[in-house]
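User: Design a sequence. Structure:
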């Protein structure tokens, strides 16, 4: 009799323990789904950039850090060497391509962005070459549909301004709501980048991500080729 009661007690304890464990797992699982749902429902931002010498990349990283955005780097299948980028050498690659627009089709390693449809805001960064956006961007612009997206151009240069580079990219894209861009000089600091980002009329989900925390590191140089304009 005692053995039977002890057995029943053990079964009851195991039953109660199982119910409590199942209830706990339901609570934990519910929290994970809710967190993922909240992240998915928010406006997502992507920072696309081409950086010839690393300076545009610095600005792109600052923007991504400020907005908690994703990064997508445009990489030519045939990278530009320092000699290729020497605009003072008329025989360099950039000089040749500048003089021969028909040879500016730069093949990129990748132009398709995973989850492209989920991004409501896209920043596009580039160095200024001869007063315009580097033609390395052309393949990416042509390969993607910007419908329904807010697009924000930004550039780096040692002397040239933004010029019509953003407008020409918008014209080439043919879709998207393109905002006025920003050119960053060699003296640009991280807080300047953050201040500019926070001033933009971005979708609510993006602006809520802007923080006041600013790195003390500076963008000592910029990516632009100081061309004869």
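Assistant: Done.
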């Amino acid at each position: 009799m005692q053995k039977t009661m002890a057995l029943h007690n053990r079964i009851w304890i195991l039953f109660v323990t199982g119910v409590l464990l199942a209830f706990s797992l339901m609570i934990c699982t519910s929290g994970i789904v809710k967190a993922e749902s909240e992240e998915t429902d928010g406006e997502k931002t992507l920072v696309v950039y081409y950086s010839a010498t690393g300076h545009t990349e610095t600005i792109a990283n600052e923007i991504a850090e400020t907005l908690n955005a994703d990064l997508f780097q445009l990489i030519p299948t045939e990278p530009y060497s320092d000699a290729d980028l020497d605009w003072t050498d008329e025989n360099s690659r950039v000089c040749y391509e500048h003089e021969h627009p028909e040879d500016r089709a730069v093949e990129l390693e990748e132009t398709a962005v995973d989850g492209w449809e989920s991004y409501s805001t896209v920043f596009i960064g580039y160095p200024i070459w001869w007063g315009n956006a580097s033609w390395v961007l052309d393949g990416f612009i042509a390969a993607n549909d910007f419908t329904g997206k807010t697009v924000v151009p930004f550039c780096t240069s040692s002397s040239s301004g933004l010029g019509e580079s953003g407008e020409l990219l918008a014209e080439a894209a043919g879709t998207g709501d393109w905002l006025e861009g920003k050119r960053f000089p060699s003296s640009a600091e991280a807080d300047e980048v953050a201040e500019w980002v926070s001033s933009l009329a971005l979708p609510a989900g993006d602006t809520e991500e802007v923080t006041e925390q600013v790195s003390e590191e500076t963008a000592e140089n910029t990516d632009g080729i100081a061309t004869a304009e």
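Residues 49 and 125 are 4 Å apart (CA to CA). Residues 19-40, 211-222 have pLDDT under 50 and may be disordered.
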